[in-house]
Every structure is written in structure tokens, then in C-alpha cells.
Amino acid sequence: MSSMSEHSKEKFKELLEELVDDTCHSEYCFLRRFLESLHPSPMILIQLKCMEKFKNEVGDVDWDEAGILWEENGWAKAFREVFDEELKVREIYELTKQKVLENCP
After folding, report:
1. Which of 8, 19, 38, 61 is the most exposed place for a label (fewest CB within 10 A)?
2. For position 5, what pLDDT does the model report?
3. What string of DSSP letters covers 73-102?
4. Residue 32 DSSP code
5. Where are the alpha helices (DSSP H) in 1-105?
């Protein structure tokens, strides 16, 4: 028997839809199915999607470099401070960005 409540299952499904909305355009989506099978924590999934947005904003960097910049420039810390599972990814990303900009000298 699963320990996940129906509310949690529904929130997880909503999160998966938000995460794959740019990449899955058919009824069957490999990425969605893969993430469902792994069932990682929402915080991990949301941080990865925020890092993807960050990577796209930074420009021509690979995932390794984006991860280093995410950490070194205070984005990881800011993300942890603003993370709220009830918010949408775009909201969390914007709050994270705001926090980083507030902390810039």
C-alpha cells in the first residue's frame, strides 16, 4: 500500500505535466513515464526545471557548467530559501532570480 495521499499523487501528476509541457506533445510521453517510475521528490524535479530555465538564460553552456554556475552564483541557496511545493515552477524560478538579484553587490 502506498503511503502517498491522493492529494500528493494529484500534485505530483500536476507537477509532471508542468515539467514536460514543453517537450511532450503526444498522449504517450517517455519523459513523463520515466519520471513517474522514478518518483523523485518534487523539490529535485522543480530544481532541475529551474536549472534548465537558468541554463537557457545563461546561453551557450552545457549542463555541467550550468550546475556549477547555479551553485557558485547563489542560485542553489536562493532556490532552497524560496522553495514552496505549492508554487508553480515559473513562480519559484522568478522568486529564486529575485532573491539572487537582491543579494548581488
Report:
1. 38
2. 59
3. TTHHHHHHHH--TTS-HHHHHHHHHHHHHH
4. H
5. 6-20, 30-38, 42-58, 63-72, 75-82, 89-102
Determine how many CB atoms are found less than 10 A away from the CB of residue 104: 7
Which residue do the cell numbers 500534485 mark?
A: 11
Average pLDDT (15-25) is 81
Indicate if the alpha-carbon torsion angle 85, 20, 37, 14 is positive or negative. Answer: positive
Distance CA 95, CA 87 (A): 10
Domain boundaries, given as residue ranges, for the chain:
1-39, 40-105
Q: For 24-47, how does the pLDDT look when each residue is reduced to its tens digit (9 = 90+)?
A: 777 778 878 888 887 778 898 899
Compute the distance between CA of residue 91 and CA of residue 22 in angstroms, rounded to an integer.
Answer: 17
Distance of CA 86 to the CA centre of its chain: 13
Measured CA to CA, the distance from residue 2 to residue 97 in angstroms comes to 36
Do 12 and 39 contact (CB within 8 A), yes or no? yes
